[in-house]
Amino acid sequence: MQEIKTTYTEVLGVLLALGNEYVEKIPSKVMQFLMENCDFTNIPKFDQNIRLEEQEISDDARNFLIMLKLKYWCNSKEEKEEIYKILKDNDKQYEKELKEKYNTDELFKNTVAKTKNENVEMVNIEKIKWYQKIFYIIKNLFKRE
Question: Which of 61, 63, 46 is CA-nearest to residue 6?
Fold first, then answer.
């Protein structure tokens, strides 16, 4: 729950740094929601001279700001399409990183290589005769009581 409040607080801090020009484009319900759910004691201050990418801001807050830009701040269809293209490229890059990280072929190669290097010994299992099994069953029945 605290992470969500931190996200809304960071978004509100960025909006305050951007100024009224951007805040006025956002519906009042969205602004009211942000105001009700943020932590006013820890609103971060952002430097307008430094790009937003270089400032410390959570990924959730970045995503929220991207959504605001797409819905309320984009002036043209081309601008929206460019953002969608960037998001798709990021998604493809993320999928590629996940595939490399969790490549099942590599996982199984490592385990097969380990088992080839280890000596595996056969375990002898004693075969119990049928009358011994019956004896153990009867013996266990009397132990329970």
Answer: 61
Contact, 58 vs 5, CB < 8 A? no
Helix/strand number for the chain, H first, E second: 7, 0
Question: What would the two tokens of residue 75 be?
Answer: 């002036």
Rounded CA separation 26/35 (Å): 13
Q: State if pTM tops 0.70.
A: no
SS3 3: helix
Rounded average pLDDT over 135-145: 77
Q: What is the mean pLDDT of residues 117-142?
A: 78
Structure confidence at residue 112 as a pLDDT band (50, 70, 90): low
- Rounded CA-CA distance 30/22 in Å is 13
Give the chain's mean pLDDT. Answer: 82
* CB distance 70 to 64 below 8 Å: no
CB-hemisphere CA count at 13 Å for 120? 5
